[in-house]
Specification:
This protein has five helices and no strands. The protein is mainly alpha-helical and about 140 residues long. It has one domain (about 5-140). The radius of gyration is 19 Å and the shape is elongated. This is Protein TRC8 homolog. One of its GO terms (cellular component) is membrane. It comes from Diaphorina citri. It is a multi-pass membrane protein.
Length: about 140
């Protein structure tokens, strides 16, 4: 979506696989009964996806900073980056609302809540770019 080149040595697939393996070992996934294993697997995927949100933030943050510093008139690049940021705020918020209304308090719920809240706060702090973007587009509209 962002059409950027990954500058990191780490690939998202490798990091995800290693994280999934570590979570499976920590939670004893292979030793559980089928019903408990499914619940644990869903919780592990939830943690994994929350970690992926952090990875996505690390990709979109430098892009937003470069777009705010440049005078790039390409509106589609700005819209794509802001769309990803919107997703990074809306999805964790909906996830937290769902989890807190349907599950009992546990250490797993607190961990997912902390990681999701961290993503929301990090993206919200980057969203200060939006007024700068709107001001530039407004000035370009009248010139």
């Amino acid at each position: 979506i962002l059409q950027t080149e990954d500058q990191d040595d780490k690939s998202i697939g490798t990091v995800s696989a290693i994280l999934f393996y570590i979570l499976a070992l920590q939670t004893g996934l292979t030793e559980l009964e089928p019903e408990d294993r499914f619940v644990r697997l869903c919780r592990n995927f939830c943690l994994l996806f929350t970690a992926l949100l952090h990875f996505i933030h690390n990709i979109v943050n430098p892009l937003l900073m470069s777009l705010s510093a440049s005078h790039n008139p390409a509106l589609h690049r700005h819209v794509r980056a802001l769309g990803v940021c919107s997703f990074l705020i809306i999805y964790p918020t909906l996830l937290l609302v769902y989890l807190w209304t349907n599950l009992q308090l546990s250490t797993w719920l607190l961990a997912v809540s902390a990681f999701s809240t961290e993503v929301i706060v990090k993206v919200w702090s980057v969203m200060k770019y939006v007024p700068i973007f709107l001001e530039k587009k407004w000035q370009n509209f009248f010139t």
